[in-house]
Amino acid sequence: MVFAHGFGCDQNMWRFVAPAFEERYRTILFDHIGAGGSDLAAYDADRYASLDGYADDVVALCRGLSVTGGVFVGHSVSAMIGILAAKKAPQLFDSLVLVCPSPRYLDDDGYVGGFTRPQIDELLDFLDTNHMGWSQAMAPAIMGNADRPELGEELTNSFCRTDPDIAKRFARTTFLADNRADLAGVEARCLVIQSSEDVIAPQEVGAYVHRHLANSELALLDATGHCPNLSAPAETIAAIQAFLRGPSRG
User: Fold this and answer.
1) In CA terms, which of 69, 132, 170, 184 is 20 to 30 Å from 95?
2) Where's the AB hydrolase-1 domain (predicted)?
3) CATH architecture under which domain 2-114+177-245 falls
4) Is the separation of the CB atoms in 204 and 112 below 8 Å?
5) Catalytic residue among 131, 198, 210, 216, which?
6) What is the pLDDT of residues 176-189, one digit of tens each?
């Protein structure tokens, strides 16, 4: 069972969820390049200019650890990274758990992504000019749960620990990506986990992902915010366990 973290995070973000599966699965946690304990010297701007570079890393990691027929659990941008990895190497994963996924953050004709192009440009410009200020402003909004400020503080600190140059490039890669076409042809069973309120990936996005994955289930949580793995781990665990216990109901 492979756990992949979202933008500005590291594998520590799974500390409340992954242990629940350690008895049944061999659990694998890792840091994307530029995050946590990753080797910053291994970063290549061309390779990571698209999410395919990160997906290639997942494939290489899993092949190196002899993963077959596993479960991939990806949060936020890692949900789409997992989709890409599963299509590159279908034998790796029988199941994909997509936590607050979004194939495209920009609104488009007939598609609600949650952001207009000027909003994305403003977000990226702010990050380019003031990484620390961006982290302090954005992390609490992304986390939600204003009544639990310690959660926003943890995400702020996580954002601030990421390498700022890599974070700027990863943000551009993430927020300007369009992976809607990649939802077609996914062979694995998929669970889409959607928070009831999420400023990054609203409910319309989760419903879109569910509709366009041929073999998927949608779990709408009572939890709010973009990081239910931190804010509502018990509910997140329960949704994953229910999915893994039974066949897809479509």
Assistant:
1) 170
2) 1-238
3) 3-Layer(aba) Sandwich (3.40)
4) yes
5) 198
6) 999 999 999 999 99
